[in-house]
Write a structure and sequence with these properties.
3 helices; about 30% strand; about 140 residues; single chain; alpha+beta; two-stranded antiparallel ribbon
Length: about 140
Amino acid sequence: MLRKIQFFLFIFFLFFVSVSAEENEQFASMACRFVSANRFTLNCELQENRIIAFKTTDDQMLRMLCLWIPQIKDDEYELDDKSISLLSKVDHVLVGYGQVPGNPLFYYCLPVRKVVSKMKMRVLGKYKIPLALCDYHFKK
C-alpha cells in the first residue's frame, strides 16, 4: 500500500513539473510573437524553449528569459532550478502573470541582477510594463 502511495505521488510530481514547463514554453512562444512584431526590434527568435534573443533598432542584442507565474493567492513565487540555471545566459527576465500563459494579465521586465529565487509580487510591481509587448521599447 505504501508503495502505491509513493508511486502515485511520484507520478503527480512529474505531471506537475511537466505542466509548469509547458506553461513557461507557451508563454515564451507567445511573447516571442509579440516582441517580433515590435517596431523597436529587428530580429527575434526563441532559443532553448524559454529564452528570447532579439536585436533592437539601437543595434543592441538582448536575451530575455521568459517566466510564467500563475495567478496565485500567495505573495511570493519560488523559481525552479532550471530557471535559476538559465539566469546566467540572459540580460533580462520577462515575467508573465495571470491565469493562462497565452493571455497574461500583466508583464514585468526585470534586469537579471534584480531576480531572486523567491520573488515577491509587490516587488515585481516596480517593473510592470505599462504597454503591450509590441509597443514597449526594450533597452539594456
